Amino acid sequence: MAHVDNVMPGKTLLQVRDLKKRFGHFEVLKTIDLAIEEGKVTFLIGPSGGGKSTLLRCLNFLEKPSGGEITFDGERLCGEEAGRFACAPESVLRRVRTRMPMVFQHFNLFNHRTVLENVVEGPIFVQRRNRDEAITHAQDILRRVGLYDWSDRFPGQLSGGQKQRVAIARAVAMKPDLILFDEPTSALDPELVSGVLDTIKALAEEGSTMVVVTHEMAFARRLADTVHFVCDGVIAESGPPAQLFDNPRSERLKNFIGSILR
Amino acid sequence: MYEFFVILIPRHMPFLIEGALVTVQLAVLSIAVGIVIGLVVALGRLSSFRPFRWALTTYVEIWRDVPLIVQLLVIYFTLPEIGISLPAFAAGVLGLSLNVGAYLSEVFRAAILSVDSGQKDGGLSIGMSRVMIYRRIILPQALRIAVPTIGGYFIGLLKDTSLVSYISVSELLRNGVIIISNTFQSMQIYLMVALIYFVLSFVASILVARLERRLTPAYLRAGHITPAGAHP
Ligand SMILES: Nc1ncnc2c1ncn2[C@@H]1O[C@H](COP(=O)(O)OP(=O)(O)OP(=O)(O)O)[C@@H](O)[C@H]1O
Ligand SMILES: [Mg+2]
Known about the structure:
The complex is a heterodimer. By secondary structure, chain A is an alpha/beta fold. Chain A has two domains: 1-101 and 179-262, P-loop containing nucleotide triphosphate hydrolases (Rossmann fold), CATH 3.40.50; 109-175, no CATH class. Chain A contains nine helices and eleven strands. In chain A, the strands form two sheets. Chain A has a six-stranded mixed sheet, with helices on both faces. By secondary structure, chain B is an all-alpha fold. Chain B has one domain (2-220): MetI-like (MetI-like fold, Orthogonal Bundle). Chain B has nine helices and no strands. The radius of gyration of chain B is 21 Å and the shape is flat. The chains are: A alpha/beta, B mainly alpha. At the A-B interface, α2, α3 and α5 of A face α5 and α6 of B. Adenosine-5'-triphosphate is lined by residues 23, 26, 28, 46, 48-54 of chain A.
């Protein structure tokens, strides 16, 4: 399937070619080609079990791909080496993850740390940035996501929506080049969803580069630069949201959109 | 009665208390070494290195299946045979800590596994190494979960030290037995020994409860969250 995003200018931050992922004999990702441009918001949609989470987790190597090539900001992170598939060493992958943090469906906050401590953990202890500067920056971010007054609370004392906004703040505090979101609102009560979506939207409007897996189609439609339809381990269709949602070409996408609207 | 309180207690108490101090030393040293053993074994058994896992599991299994007194006798009498002669006290600490370490490794293992593992992904996703995730995220939570159980094992250990009298460590029980062999006042002396064990355990349980309260962090105390494995 050819990409439709080749008209967009700007630097390609993340380039994925023929990515494959197997769990045992089960081929979850068959062949994935994907390019993420700087400053763009990319959405991944598709049926449950289609491989969206697996794809996202391969991008930051939380899952090791089984084949293919991933290049991040000009640096090749996996691919064929002397005829064998290999990934970059863990130290390189860790450094990449600091530039490409991830926000999870179930938040994955550190339960024994306060809101502020959760947010400064990466900057202070992983990136070894100046402590005071990191704290000021974190407080700034918490103010923007509306949680400054909750700085000293623990995750267990927050609502799901607040937890997710802390998780987003934790990612933003890394001063990332790219943020990955895996169904950030799927675990939330309906009334808490909009707060988190607003936070993501604000980031997009600031020009952050993001890859978002979601089932919130209206949100994807409003915010996306490009939407990819992931199904059965391939990107079955790609394009700007209007094209994908209004003129789906493949049967699978038509069925999927139909099932969502119903 | 008069004889017990006015003559026997003042006469024999100092020697018994001397033994009690050794008992406390045995217990404190053994729990400290046992915690280190337990933690190392728990982490080793959770590692992906198979021979290591297998060896440590065997250790835990053997130590839990053989009575402590037999372990102590084996250590005390076989080590010299292979050229290691330990003083009785050191052999006692070794035996007790290997024993409590085997049990604590299970406690730590369960505590580590009960920490919500999504936090590992959380740590990885901001570039933390696995070691760092264990050191800063998993272990601090696991240790706090394990504290009450460790306290329980410590109180048990305090009493189990009496078995070390069999390998001639001059702790509380052995000192009592020595007095009895000179005075033949079994009933009175054993009563005093029992009283001292009671006081030691009682004080220990108060200290443990206090430590537990001190170490129960705000994130566990506050409100509705009870991590799996924590006491309700
Ligand atoms: N660690 C794993 N081991 C084995 N199979 C896995 C593993 N992770 C995912 N899978 C399988 O891979 C397939 C794709 O899963 P994935 O979670 O990527 O789908 P998804 O598109 O994110 O679905 P959803 O919308 O439900 O989150 C599923 O069939 C799943 O069972
Ligand atoms: Mg998923």
